[in-house]
Automatic annotation (TrEMBL):
It comes from Desulfovibrio sp. U5L. It comes from the Bacteria. InterPro entries: 4Fe-4S_dom (IPR007202), 4Fe4S_Fe-S-bd (IPR017896), 4Fe4S_Fe_S_CS (IPR017900), Cytosolic_Fe-S_CAF (IPR050340), Fe_hydrogenase (IPR009016), Fe_hydrogenase_lsu_C (IPR004108), PAS (IPR000014). Residues 358-419 form the 4Fe-4S domain. This is Iron only hydrogenase large subunit.
Amino acid sequence: MPKHYPIYTIETECQDCYRCLRQCPVKAIQVEGGRATVVPELCIACGQCVAACPSHAKQVRSDMFGVFKLLRGSRPTYVSLAPSWVTEFPDTSPQSMIAALRRLGFSGVSETALGAQEVSAAVAQTLSQGGPRLLLSTACPAAVDFIRGYMPELVPNLTPLLSPLLSHCRMLRRAYGPQIGVVFFGPCVAKKTEADNHPGLLDAAMTYTDLRAMLREDGINPASLVPGPADVFMPQPARDGALYPIEGGMSDTVKAYAGNAQVCFTTLSGIATIEAALQGIQNHVLPRPVFVEMLACVGGCVRGPCVSSNRPRLLDQLDVFNRAAKPVPDTPVRPAVVAISERKNPSPVDIPVYSEDQYVKVLRLIGKFGPEDEINCGGCGHESCRGLARAMLEGMAEPSMCVHFLRKRATRKANTLLRCIPAGVVIADAKLHIIECNEHFARLFGEDTLMAYEASPGMEGATLEKIVPFIGLFRRALETETDIHRDALRQDDRVFSVTIFTIEPRNVIGGVIFDVTGSELRRDEIAQRAREIIRKNLETVQEIACRLGENMADTEILLRSLAEGFSSGARTIAEKDLRGRRP
Ligand code: SF4
Ligand code: SF4
């Protein structure tokens, strides 16, 4: 089954903040429907978006169950452990760390730094043989992918070597057999793409986050393990290769080789720094050979995207520095112990060119009608308004990402509403100072207020208490965080309909106020008339009732006499009838 790209987004967790996009050095993130997702074809797997995402929506593929499966299988599997592990598990000795990994089921643990040492030897040899004037390191796969994709003109300057990790894999396979499994543990996401692209060398690249999860799963606490005699690095511990995770570490190891006195060594960490330093360099003749150590992460791998340390970086750098053996000056140049040559090919990212007309059209969609509107705030995650426009042209962004435009539009809408609404509207802060009010509001409270409004439309900062007679309602709404509504609030000879509501609990409240004095008077008048009609009707009803009462009495008398007449008549007929039947 094909593997997913190493970085993915949990879309439901994406909070639309564009922080990932802001951090992404190559803007490989597409925003669609407010969700920011990684575009693998543009991504260099630097992992900066993962480290930056505040809601952990950007995730790194785990590969943990694949590794557990590998460990359950018949192939002996070895760990390639990144030298930065000392900063991730500062309380654990190397032997206890090895014991923990072996307890997970690995056959042995080896240091990736061994591969780094071979890379340093090979670089030193290339330099001593008078390679290209400018030589760019290939230790960091993210930096290499950046050059291949975004500065392909510099691909010939990349050292034609495998990375330290892949070199180490080759060493392990030579030492323990081509069939072994190799699993890397480190701080890096880009190593996962190395594993995906070189399945024959590296079975899986795991992060420290993965390692912690595996240890947790098996209930292993490395710091508490008592190591045995077999808990040692295989085939031997590394030396100065362990300096690679810190800025300048690789350069120091290469510099130590004899014959490099003419070479200028420099370190560039962070993709933006690399880009700025190398842009257009191919058009210049360098006065002396230059070796550039490139690291995608600012500060080096000790600040890789999957480290959990939040100590000052200097402490982590010192831990790495103290643990590594120091390079020995004037080490004789030698070839690498395994074949680690590999030529890199350019893999240029397609960067379309757009006309000025296209830019102008798209910029208008985000309310930019001239250079003065292009404030380049970076809120959208792009470095400039034109950057966002370009992303929109590429189908990678949407107009709603321009916070400035949205705000302007929202403000315009709010202002129009405030102006047109036939009610007094006021918004006030926790101290009941006006944040904003409309003219209707000012008109409600007399000439002085209206003059103050004309002098300073919106009346920002004015004290509400001095204007509104029913300030107590505002206070109560603020304190209780409940909305208050009064239909007919009488103040002297006036009647107000008032609604006060919370905008930000205990911080901002709003009020909508109508003067309903006129309609209240009319209502009083109507009520008065209604009362009169009701009274008259009542009188009529009572009268009718009386009449009905009298009529009822007459009717009763009549009916009684009729009934009595009827019953006495009936009696007489019956008696006659009875007499007539007697013999
Ligand atoms: S991994 Fe790096 S290049 Fe890829 S999307 Fe994230 S920040 Fe951008
Ligand atoms: S600097 Fe190190 S951790 Fe960061 S991407 Fe490069 S190799 Fe990986």
